Automatic annotation (TrEMBL):
GO terms for molecular function: L-malate dehydrogenase (NAD+) activity. Coiled coil: none annotated. Catalyzes the reversible oxidation of malate to oxaloacetate. Keywords: NAD, Oxidoreductase, Tricarboxylic acid cycle. Belongs to the LDH/MDH superfamily. MDH type 2 family. This is Malate dehydrogenase.
Length: 328
């Protein structure tokens, strides 16, 4: 049998945490033959820690065969000790009267501390996924705060956007999601993201040619995917949680176990591909194998796509500028 992998989840008592932990412990993320140890991080606040204890009671009550251990933490220095994976879900939500700038700064502080803690105590091979918003910039800050770890170990979650795009396109061409390949999403996890089905195929046929409707792309598809988070809040009264948790599982599973040549989307530090400045935490089409991701190269970027990519890049550059004074 395999030796257990250590997985840390922050924001473990939150709504995404509640939808995520059970699936990790069930083997949905790292495989049905891979034992896991959960190292759960929450803020020191008494209510949060108590809620975390409640979640842990429920996890115990599932008697998951793969769960080899579980601990509660309020300090990232203990929560991240020797971990193989970090799913950084906990973040500061926007409070009343809070400006975007305040939100960026509050989160910059959290992700500076957590990046430093990862640098100090995590395994050198740790794979980090940032879910907490603003996810790309938070991931960027954590990466910059951990100079002792390879930058490529830090990623941001664009997978929910990717899955949303996949589901919309599959419905449009009347196929199942498994029949659609080569979908991708470029840029920031925000309404500026650019979901791109120009390269998508089904049974080897071009999805773009099947849809053949640029107005639908521009006026229906892109706004539907871009504003999906808001639509869910409007309908459910709460933000997406189970779908976000599912996307986190998909992201880490594909990163760890490989996509067999298939494309997916990950927010990763740019290597300069497609003119995205090096280090920018940007959604790219990738394939993964042997625990490494590779950007899909050589895709033609038409004028409309370039415009959309520029827009989401501009937003990310502004976020990055806004936290510059906090990052070394
Ligand atoms: P939530 O408010 O239900 O839970 C967040 C939890 O994080 C809370 O229990 C809180 O105590 C904890 N937390 C806050 N700061 C922390 C810190 N410094 N260390 C450890 N724990 C901390 O929120 P929910 O719905 O679970 O969402 C979590 C985050 O995920 C939000 O920032 C949300 O915007 C983001 N999100 C990102 C998505 C993406 O696609 N990248 C999709 C959906 C949500």
């Amino acid at each position: 049998t395999k030796s257990p992998m250590r997985v840390s989840v922050s924001g473990a008592a939150g709504q995404i945490g509640y939808a995520l932990l059970f699936r990790i412990a069930n083997g949905d993320m790292l495989g049905k033959d891979q034992p896991v140890i959960l190292q759960l991080l929450e803020i020191a606040d008494e209510k949060a820690q108590k809620a975390l204890q409640g979640v842990m009671m429920e996890i115990n009550d599932c008697a998951f065969p793969l769960l080899a251990g579980m601990t509660a933490h309020s300090d990232p220095m203990t929560a991240f000790k020797d971990i193989d994976f970090a799913l950084l879900v906990g973040a500061r939500p926007r409070g009343p009267g809070m400006e975007r700038k305040d939100l960026l700064e509050a989160n910059a502080q959290i992700f500076t501390v957590q990046g430093k803690a990862l640098d100090a105590v995590a395994k050198r091979t740790v794979k980090v996924l940032v879910v907490g918003n603003p996810a790309n910039t938070n991931a960027y800050i954590a990466m910059k705060s951990a100079p002792g770890l390879p930058s490529k170990n830090f990623t941001a979650m664009l997978r929910l956007d990717h899955n949303r795009a996949l589901s919309q396109v599959a419905a449009k061409v009347n196929k199942s999601v498994t029949e659609i390949e080569k979908m991708c999403v470029w840029g920031n996890h925000s309404p500026t993201m650019y979901a791109d089905y120009r390269f998508a195929t089904t049974d080897g046929k071009s999805v773009k040619e099947m849809i053949n409707d640029d107005v639908w792309n521009k006026d229906v598809f892109l706004p539907t995917v871009g504003k999906r988070g808001a639509a869910i809040i409007e309908a459910r009264g709460l933000s997406s949680a189970a779908s976000a948790a599912n996307a986190a599982i998909d992201h880490v599973r594909d990163w760890a176990l490989g996509t067999n040549g298939k494309w997916t989307t990950m927010g990763i530090p740019s290597d300069g591909s497609y003119g995205i400045p090096e280090g920018t935490m940007f959604g790219f089409p990738v394939t993964t194998a042997n625990g490494e991701y590779q950007i899909v190269q050589g895709l033609a970027i038409d004028a409309f796509s370039q415009e959309r990519i520029n827009l989401t890049l501009k937003e990310l550059s502004e976020e990055r500028e806004g936290v510059k004074h906090l990052v070394g």
